[in-house]
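Quarterly update from the structural biology core.
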Amino acid sequence: MENFTYYAPTRVIFGKGAIENLGKEAEKLEDQKAIIVYGSNRVEKNGILQKVEEQLDTWGIEHIRFAGVKANPTVLHAKEGIKLAKEYSADLILAIGGGSAIDTAKAMAIGAVNSGDIWDIWTGKVPFTECLDVACVLTIPAAGSEMSNSAVLTNEELGQKVGLTTDIYRCKFAIMDPTYAQSLPKKQIACGVVDIMMHTLDRYFNKKEIQHNHMTDAIAHGLLKTVIKWGKIAYDDPSNYEAMSEIMWASSLSHNDITGLGGGRDFSIHQFGHEISAKYDITHGESLSAIWGTWCRYVMDYDIDRFALYAKEVWGSEKEGKEAAIEGIEKTEEFFKSLDMPIRIPELSCGILDKDTLDELAIKCTRNGARKIGTFHPLDTEEVKKVYYLANIV
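Predicted structure, tokenized:
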């Protein structure tokens, strides 16, 4: 196990009626003016937005709304929010929703108090030193942004989707009531389940030299088995509170780093998926499930034992070596299919892609060859192309 520093400061208020604590938590921060960030009018129709506003009113916190967050949050929309935050002199950016709303809130919180264009800040060209307070009311278990130090934005003009990792914009508190996720469309639940699994698997498959993390592995195995069991139940019956509770908590644990302590991060699947979703505005979870199995088959020979362990501990495989590894991959793909999720690029809305397009995605993925992606087996541009090619076969 490698040395690590663990920091997960978000205060979590979990369970039915958790929103009744929102005003008190905001008041603790001594914030006076909040911007409520959200996407669709679902939060208006189901009454969540009104409950948030009632809480803020009760505790004397002024507030305005900022709607319109997209499934793949954009730089352009974040810039509109930053402008509003400056004009309003906001001190709290409060997201209602999932990763897209929270990531937009994080971008607004940084952009409102640091000089420079938010995309330049996001891509490391301009430094930042401070941030407004960020908090959330989670309604979509998926991205884990409520407890992570990560956020992602899409630059539609450049066709790029880029993540930023920093502790400065972690949520101060997260209100998590599983009943708020019970009105989600089934596709969103499925995409969320895949994202939760990938946040764990992208940590689980890392460099061979740093995989002797038995406690961390046990947490990862337990989380994956929990999500597989209860994710399918939640997908089949979104009204099942127990199932939704399990995947909502798993969402947070999958991306607050506890499933990867003492190890590394691969996250090559996310890089593959980001390029597809940036170009075609495809839902994040779908872009991940469409690549994962192909990536596994391409890299598994670099550490068959790791894949065999995954198959044994998560899927109960009784096979050994490569046979077990293949069984684990196939079982995972079967699970994705049970959620009506794609396991190849042609199953996405973009359909089969031509070679030039796949080459373009690979070049963007490796920043024009300036980097390799992943840690399990770092992939250069030519290898990234090969994975895209294989995932594009019907």
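The radius of gyration is 20 Å.
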